[in-house]
Specification:
CATH class: Alpha Beta
Bound molecules: S-adenosylmethionine
Number of domains: 1
Distance between the termini: 37 Å
Largest sheet: 8 strands, mixed
Shape: globular
Structural class: alpha/beta
Length: about 200
């Protein structure tokens, strides 16, 4: 097997969910904020029911092309230009919702909750919510405050940053069951990326 061809640039913590056996073939998956689809290559190759949205039409176009190549029987209508805060799907239909490097583009806390509530709405009971997002966890002393939970990071970017308290409060509000503890990767004090995985009860 050519690992690179098989998995592409799949996020390492999403790969961890695969290794744990939580993402089973034939599951219905939504990548909310899919970019060019780096996290979808394995799922497209292996018969998962893949859906994706992104606000950027070029990104959705790239994912449509990827799907046409790797999963030609999948409907092109599965891929939409849409905001995560207004998903064009009925409620409770996905087994897995992926939010990879998207929630830290929230403009403020209301927008963050709005995006989350939409992703939660379309998740089936028993479904998995997988998020990787920038956080302040571990780099608090290196941040410049710009506004409500918005910060300038040492790498120069401006982001909406969560902390552990907000993720715990939000998980309780959604009544999500923690599947893993929070895990945060600190990239040389330039930025921190946190992995947050919940099951919808
Ligand atoms: C850093 S890229 C991550 C792409 C992909 N999820 C990945 O992990 O490679 C962020 C993506 O989220 C999209 N995005 C940001 N905010 C969004 C929103 N509110 N609704 C839909 N897409 C959004 C951007 O257009 C971009 O494609």
């Amino acid at each position: 097997m050519n690992i690179r061809e098989e998995f592409g640039d799949l996020d390492i913590y999403l790969f961890d969910q695969l290794l744990k056996g939580r993402i089973q073939p034939a599951m219905k998956i939504l990548d909310a904020g899919c970019g060019k689809g780096r996290n979808l290559i394995y799922f497209l190759r292996h018969g998962y029911q893949v859906f994706a949205v992104d606000a950027d039409a070029n990104a959705v176009d790239a994912v449509r092309k990827l799907a046409a190549q790797l999963a030609p029987t999948l409907a092109q209508e599965n891929f939409h230009v849409a905001a995560v805060s207004a998903l064009p799907f009925a409620s409770e239909q996905f087994d897995l919702v992926i939010s990879s490097a998207v929630l830290h583009f929230a403009t403020d806390e209301a927008h963050f909750h709005h995006m989350l509530d939409e992703m939660w709405r379309v998740l089936k009971p028993g479904g998995i919510f997988f998020a990787r997002l920038a956080s302040s966890i571990g780099i608090e002393a290196h941040l410049q405050t710009l506004g409500e939970r918005r910060y300038r990071l040492p790498d120069g970017s401006a982001r909406f940053l969560v902390d552990a308290a907000l993720l715990h409060q939000t998980s309780a509000r959604l009544q999500g069951r923690w599947l893993d503890p929070l895990k945060t990767t600190n990239v040389e004090n330039l930025r921190c990326m946190t992995t947050w995985v919940l099951e919808k009860c």
